[in-house]
Amino acid sequence: MDTVADLTEDELIASMLPLLPRGDRTVVPAGDDAAVVEAPDGRFCTTTDVLVEDRHFRRDWGEASDVGWRAAAQNLADVAAMGAEPTSLVVSLVLPAATSVDWVHGLCRGMAEICGPIGVGVVGGDLSGGQQLVVAVTAHGDLGGRPAVLRSGARPGDVLAHAGVLGAAAGGYALLEAGVHAGGEQALVSAFLRPAPPLAAGPRAAAAGASALMDVSDGLLRDAGRMARASAVVLDVDDLAATVPGDLERLADAATRTGQDPVRWMLTGGEDHGLLAAFPGDVRLPDGFRRIGTVREPADHRAGTVLVRGAAPDVGATGWDHFRA
Amino acid sequence: MDTVADLTEDELIASMLPLLPRGDRTVVPAGDDAAVVEAPDGRFCTTTDVLVEDRHFRRDWGEASDVGWRAAAQNLADVAAMGAEPTSLVVSLVLPAATSVDWVHGLCRGMAEICGPIGVGVVGGDLSGGQQLVVAVTAHGDLGGRPAVLRSGARPGDVLAHAGVLGAAAGGYALLEAGVHAGGEQALVSAFLRPAPPLAAGPRAAAAGASALMDVSDGLLRDAGRMARASAVVLDVDDLAATVPGDLERLADAATRTGQDPVRWMLTGGEDHGLLAAFPGDVRLPDGFRRIGTVREPADHRAGTVLVRGAAPDVGATGWDHFRA
């Protein structure tokens, strides 16, 4: 099996390009010094996220295509979280010399599988050798004439809503780590390996008049805390076991098998890449969003607090921290 | 001295943001899920380049700010090489736990030093731990209503021209590697550590009607070969010792001290990030460009060939290859 060290950089790139989607908005595709992408709105969104082997993914946990899918998905989710439609990605790869060419091609295919059907192009990239596999993706999107929806816009009286799933990726991760996944639980493992952010819900939220919107990548509580601080409000989260029972039910078997707490997964599990939104009380929630709480004045609690109703586990200072985890 | 492991990710980011320029075209700066940047042209350029420690830079060869400068510079050069004006960068960093916070701040300052004065914003980023220091930058630019200038547009009869310097970064690299740099040769070391791409020459070339344009990052011969193949022409390069004697003269002392061939540096040295352009014969070369050859029909030589006049060293299959170097 060929490794990347058996090919020249130009040969490797030439073998990758046909696997990657051009994109509906691409004027000049990959191959020149830079790509050119349409920005009909006259503005574009941009965001970047990096995945490092043995930190964000393990090669023995899934296929190369899962890593490509996930690297794209989490960046596309950040674009959707501004209320924008994704248009394009660029990708920098650091590849140890022993990386198989097949693995790199699988990575490309995974990116194509999520990007191709929604018209997103993979329009550029760079390759380097290195000690550890790194996948750095930058995504771009178009706001379609709407204002960007920031995390700082939540106002007292707003409804707090969520689109996507809560805790599924954390459940899948726990199963992988415990080595016990099988059968029906494969769905949770997929939710971790191939998160499916509700991308279309982002522009829908913006069009419906969302006052705040953000990607939930580091866990509901931690990300809600960021929205609460940015908006200088208190977020009052309903009892999730009662509010989104379907999300909890989906986690039951995995919780039993791993001996972990499914409510904790829902509150602190990262990598689901759902969308957290605040909507004015008179707005009908757009498709995909379910009410999970209320935005309150910082009265009894200081601004930036997230209150959790129901039987919440003691989660302390929650969520994922790359340097302290 | 604090290392990145002494801070939370949020604390580290909060300490970096004030060091980074916001940018003249930035609508929503770093801090939300994605940034929003103006694209007055209705299109934007995007390109990405990754730097890996001990492969693209060594921490003991210069300051952190040099690495930040260089990571930004080589991406900005790719934007200029489309004929565009750079508007913004996003940056993904992989930082080993022992990386000092000072080093990270120095990196930010170096990016600010090249981006700030030209109105380019550093509008987003991501951090991760990892084994090896990696700096992945994506740059964006605006075409100002002009067509993008591709590397595939060179036509027989065009003048081949170059803006920037040839061989200086290779000379500086040779001095650093030999450990013999001092005094006057510091200028070459700077040319390697802090390349100064002729950014304004890119849009000038586009406005003047350049038929082809590209960044010279992997050495003149290798990159000229790419232009020749993309354009299906032969590029006939004049005797550089006679054509750009100033570039050669600047290398003389370093060549003596290292025992290397300065013409080889000019032909095959990478990382100068000058611009190679083809202009129709009736175009007056814009400021910064000097004639270095002619674009010819593929008659006696097949398309894609680069001919080198004068006393050229035997350079074989030239230039830098990340996986075979």
From TrEMBL, chains A, B:
The keyword Oxidoreductase does not apply. One of its GO terms (molecular function) is thiamine-phosphate kinase activity. Mg(2+) 2 binds at D49, D78. It is an enzyme of class 2 (transferase). ATP binds at G125, D126, R151, S217. Pathway: Cofactor biosynthesis; thiamine diphosphate biosynthesis; thiamine diphosphate from thiamine phosphate: step 1/1. Residues 155-245 form the PurM-like C-terminal domain. Keywords: ATP-binding, Kinase, Magnesium, Metal-binding, Nucleotide-binding, Thiamine biosynthesis, Transferase. Mg(2+) 3 binds at D33, D78, D215. Residues 31-141 form the PurM-like N-terminal domain. It holds the Pfam family AIRS_C. It catalyses: thiamine phosphate + ATP = thiamine diphosphate + ADP. Catalyzes the ATP-dependent phosphorylation of thiamine-monophosphate (TMP) to form thiamine-pyrophosphate (TPP), the active form of vitamin B1. Reaction mechanism of ThiL seems to utilize a direct, inline transfer of the gamma-phosphate of ATP to TMP rather than a phosphorylated enzyme intermediate. Belongs to the thiamine-monophosphate kinase family. This is Thiamine-monophosphate kinase.
